[in-house]
Amino acid sequence: MSDPTFPTPEEAGWTRPATIGRDRFQVGDLVALDGRPGDWELMAYTPKPGRWQVEPAQSGERDRDEVHMSELRRLADAPQVRRGDLVLQNYPEQQWAGEVGAVYRLGRWVAETTRQTPGGRSWVSLEDVERLVVVTREQMKAAMCVEVQEGVHRGHIVQAVVSRHAGKFRVRCECDPGLDICRTGRQTEWCGNLASALELWEWHTSNKSDA
Ligand SMILES: [Zn+2]
Fold this sequence. Notes:
The structure is a single chain. This protein is mostly beta strands. It folds into three domains: 1-77, SH3 type barrels (Roll); 86-135; 143-207, no CATH class. It is 9% helix and 37% strand. The protein has helices at 137-142, 194-207, and strands at residues 30-33, 36-45, 51-56, 65-68, 72-74, 86-89, 98-106, 108-116, 122-128, 132-135, 145-150, 153-159, 169-173. A five-stranded antiparallel β-sheet has the order 4-3-2-1-5, with no helix packed on it. The chain has a five-stranded antiparallel β-sheet with strand order 9-8-7-6-10. The structure holds zinc ion. Residues 153, 173, 175, 204, 208, 211 line the site of zinc ion (ZN).
């Protein structure tokens, strides 16, 4: 919980660079504190020189405290994602980026992520940090999703954002819900460019005219 008596640097009309000092800690870092058990999250700078607001890295209600930067210790196994990051699971089929909230240990590092449907519904998942890749809004915006239609066929050509298939395209049609179109077998057929994805779409619509 945030301390209502303590303004954030923004509220105080006070800004600082994104990193500070020799160790270059930044907001969202998970750290250890000298002489205190557990993991802690750096929540905000304070207007007081060298002082940070911290919260215990755990789920649910958390009590905010204030410490001096000399008490901060790097974690040897600090997770690679932090609060506010946009992430995808490292699978080529992943299309919906989530925003990272709390990050804490549950055996392994896990992150609470919030995703939103285009309709505005949102849901929270708990995800293994090892599976997450940080992406940018630009990357997500640039990933192509083309609607295609031919006769009774209505489909999508979707570009992968992460994994070894990043940048490649797969093709789906409503007549095979849950499956990507493939000329051989049932594995996804990844196309290196949009033209070859369109060829795959044409193959599908001309070979499945009875759908
Ligand atoms: Zn179809």
